[in-house]
Amino acid sequence: MNSKRIFLSLSQQSGYEQEYIQRALKSNWITSGGPNVDEFENKLRNYFDNENFITASNSGTSAIHLALILLDVKADDEVICQSMTFSASANPILYQNACPIFVDSEVETWNICPEYLETAIKDRIKKGKKPKAIIAVHLYGMPYRIDEVHSIADKYGIPIIEDSAEALGSSYKGKKCGSFGTFGILSFNGNKIITTSSGGALISSSKSFKEKAIFYATQSKDSAVHYQHSEVGYNYRMSNICAAIGLGQIKNLEDNIRFRRDNHLFYRETFKNIKKVQLFNNPSDDFFSNYWLNTILLETEEERESLRLAFEEANIESRPLWKPMHLQPLFEKYPYYGGKIAEKLFQKGLCLPSGSNLTDKDKNRIKEVIINFFRGI
Ligand SMILES: *Cc1c(COP(=O)(O)O)cnc(C)c1O
Q1: pTM flag (> 0.90)
Q2: Domains in the chain and their CATH numbers?
Q3: Could you identify the atom of ligand 1 that is nearest to the CA of residue 61?
Q4: 3-state SS record for the chain
Q5: pLDDT digits over 200-237, tens only?
Q6: What lines the ligand 1 site, CB under 6 Å?
């Protein structure tokens, strides 16, 4: 095994990162917040057509936590969350000592199922508590069923936090993911569409939400000349150096999305004649996925695992899909509404290398493993 490892999801540098980092170092603004953070927020705001307010944070997880705080989620409140997701979607519910209520996926988008969502809301109300918020996720960059999910949320007057960590550049009916909910969040972790090494953003529709988010993210300082606090504060603001990396990265945003979508075309071609494999793709023209990760469904869990090992043998990283939250030791005691859709996806699904830095040579190596594997069975 002498070839270099192909990773699941790496972003590539634009070449401008150094320049922005140097500028930040020279200005001696080496702390959280600062001119690069403001500029990075403005660039993102432009990207979202200047209709939203952006608060840069030190991670996507902290952005979700801030959204819950701003929605006044407190101890023993209930928050609905898509079960099929990364744990970072659900952990902040526990930070608030609130109770997560998990909901299954539906088969076309793999995201929160509108029917089970409504069942869950009705049942929680019947049991005495209306959920305070809904966390819906655009998994692997695929928009969830926005029209259906939002109309149910509106019917019961429950705000939505749109976990768009994996979906920067995705859209639904031409509108960008992250801009539909009361809050949206982005992640700039190293494996996402663009990276700031670690970082995130809270997207909101009002300036006052942004001001409040900054207040909580910078230790809840009351206005006084001394340090005065009447509320719990957090150290959640993005650092000026991380924002410098972000300014370099954002120059590559459109390219990175194009490279990810090109990877999808490569997989579509590769799997064209392999009938037992289902490549995950847009269910209709309303959906525009950035194809953050390309994912496939195999016929059985055993087959999925053998393919994963075949990739590993060739020094190529691939991974099972997210293990649903309701099956996690940490979360299994919380209520769950649904059947076995998310569980089946977890058993049979595999994420394939999809970084924006994949070369033609990498793709040839990936293709060779796939062709050999399916020739053999
Ligand atoms: C990455 C990710 C997050 C968290 O983002 P961090 O920046 O790593 O904290 C949240 N939700 C989903 C679905 C993610 O993939």
Answers
A1: yes
A2: 17-250 (3.40.640.10), 253-375 (3.90.1150.10)
A3: 9
A4: CCCCCECCCCCCCCCCHHHHHHHHHHHCCCCECCHHHHHHHHHHHHHCCCCCEEEEECCHHHHHHHHHHHCCCCCCCEEEEECCCCHHHCHHHHHCCCEEEEECECCCCCCECHHHHHHHHHHHHHCCCCCCEEEEECHHHCCCCHHHHHHHHHHHCCCEEEECCCCCCCEECCEECCCCCCEEEEECCCCCCCCCCCCEEEEECCHHHHHHHHHHHECCCCCCCCCCCCCCCCECECEHHHHHHHHHHHCCHHHHHHHHHHHHHHHHHHCCCCCCCEECCCCCCCEECCCCCEEEECCCHHHHHHHHHHHHHCCECCEECCCCHHHCCCCCCCCEECCCHHHHHHHHEEEECCCCCCCHHHHHHHHHHHHHHHHHC
A5: 999 999 999 999 999 999 999 988 889 989 999 999 99
A6: 59-61, 85-86, 88-89, 137, 163, 165-166, 187, 189, 200
